[in-house]
Structures are given as C-alpha cells and as structure tokens.
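Take one protein record:
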Amino acid sequence: MIKPLTPAARRRKILEDRGVELKKGTRKPVPIHQLPSSYPKTTLMQFIELKHKTRLENLIFKGTIYDIEKKLGVDATTISKWRRIINKAFFKQFEEAK
C-alpha cells in the first residue's frame, strides 16, 4: 500500500519536477540568474533566461536553430555558438567525473 505524500513532500516533488531549486533553509526559489552554471553566461544569455523564466539549456536544445531563432529573437549563429559552449561545458564535467 502506498502512503500518501505529506503536503511538504508533495510541494517539494512538484517544484523538483518543474526544475525549481530552493534556497537552503527557506522556501524561496533561487532566481534563475543566481543558479550555478558550468559555463560563463553573457548578459544576453542571462536576459533570455530571465525573460523566459527557464534555464538556457531548456530553451536552445528544443527544435532547430531556426525555430529557436524565431522564438527567442536571437541570431541563429549565436544560438549555434551557445549550443557549442554548453555542450563543451557538459562534456568537460562528464570527463572530470570519471
């Protein structure tokens, strides 16, 4: 028999599913621009994250470069560079973990 979740556990699970991180010792969400990142972000990257209220990785890897260009209003070559930077940082972390 499955035990029902407590309200706090249910809240934590919903926030976790949505990718929201909470500040330690509080219930306040950490603003997107304050989340730790494995790559340096330009001011445009930070602006896009704040505008769309999600991490850049969640935005630029869904669809083609040209679809994202229309959605974000950023040039396709810039999106391509961002993808390359993020992939490089991701694989660098992966290699360091070995």
